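anyone seen this seq b4? input:
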Amino acid sequence: MSIHYAVASALLRGTVDEESYRHLDDAALLALAGKVQVEADDGFTAAYPAKQGAEVSVELADGRILSRRLADVVPADLDLIHHRFRAAASAAIGTAAAEALETAVRNLMDCDDVGALMRQAAPSHSQAVAA
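predicted toks r here
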């Protein structure tokens, strides 16, 4: 998705996570995303790719401007990636199946049947009916 959408989600929901992309037709989020303006910054451009900076400025209805600038956005570490995977997978296929899938992915190099891995990722019939 676009930077516009991610910024709007952060402002509206307080986060940008997998849930941010489950309701792509959210009228309030889309309206806010339409107000986001993206501008290049010479300093950030010059620092890239060694650093990936960002600045967000928000103009409030009363005219005040709130701003936050980061010289380098810190990427997610392995623990955060695993946490986000578990949360998203558990919501989709259940906690036990998500744990089994995570183990299967960790052991992917030893897997003889990638189809079995894909079957583990699919929601069960009962989960599909409940959704």
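Residues 6 and 16 are 6 Å apart (CA to CA). Residues 78-93 form the longest helix (16 residues). kinda curious what u guys think
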